[in-house]
Design brief:
This protein is an alpha+beta fold and 203 residues long. 26% of the residues lie in helices and 29% in strands.
Length: 203
């Protein structure tokens, strides 16, 4: 997978519409898709979306973790080249900030999506890895990370719990059916892609 700079250059060379306004992840995923929570450094969303397609350019880095298997996703990242693949549970869908992305799906899609600003990622990398200049390098389409899945399931459980509490508060009802609280999965870390040092950065 090309790095973020190469992906941006590829997108430009293929005539991608660069006039598309960069948007926050909250703006890209419709509000009716599911509950969400924002922090000063990023956001988390649990979304269930009907079949459809989307093209976007985000201000933030984002990672979607697939919570229910989806067949024949069609995606592109930084170019017009479309890749079709099946996304099992735990599959990662990573979109670096500032890179044109597209995704089409023919089945209902259930995801947890976490976003982080480029500034927050740089601060995290400096703290954890003593790096000051980093890029987010997406793994190959279809990559599964079971550790990320376990985190996504916890986020989903918390967001849906908050939804139930908010619904009770709003309507004054005591009998509420929550969306779902997923069962926890083993915490197995399968890491491909991730944070890396740019080629020309000082060591």
């Amino acid at each position: 997978m090309k790095n973020a700079d190469e992906a941006r250059e590829s997108g430009d060379s293929q005539g991608v519409d660069r006039a598309r306004t960069a948007r926050h992840v909250f703006d890209i995923i419709p509000e009716n898709a599911g509950p969400r929570r924002a922090t000063p450094r990023g956001s988390a969303i649990y979304s269930v979306r009907a079949p459809g397609s989307q093209k976007f350019l985000a201000k933030e880095h984002s990672v979607g973790i697939v919570l229910a298997p989806v067949r024949k996703l069609r995606a592109s990242l930084g170019s017009d080249r479309i890749t079709e693949y099946d996304a099992p549970v735990g599959c990662l869908v990573i979109n670096p900030a500032g890179v044109d992305s597209s995704l089409a799906w023919s089945e209902t899609r259930e995801n947890a999506v976490v976003s982080i600003s480029p500034e927050a990622l740089s601060e995290l990398a400096a703290h954890e890895f003593d790096l000051t200049d980093v890029e987010l390098e997406p793994p190959a389409f279809g990559t599964v990370d079971l550790w990320a899945l376990s985190v996504a399931q916890r986020i989903t459980a918390e967001l849906t719990r908050m939804l139930c509490v908010n619904t009770i508060s709003r309507f004054g009802q005591s009998r509420i059916v929550c969306l779902r609280e997923p069962r926890m999965r083993p915490q197995v870390d399968v890491r491909r892609g991730g944070i890396r040092r740019p080629k020309n950065a000082a060591r």
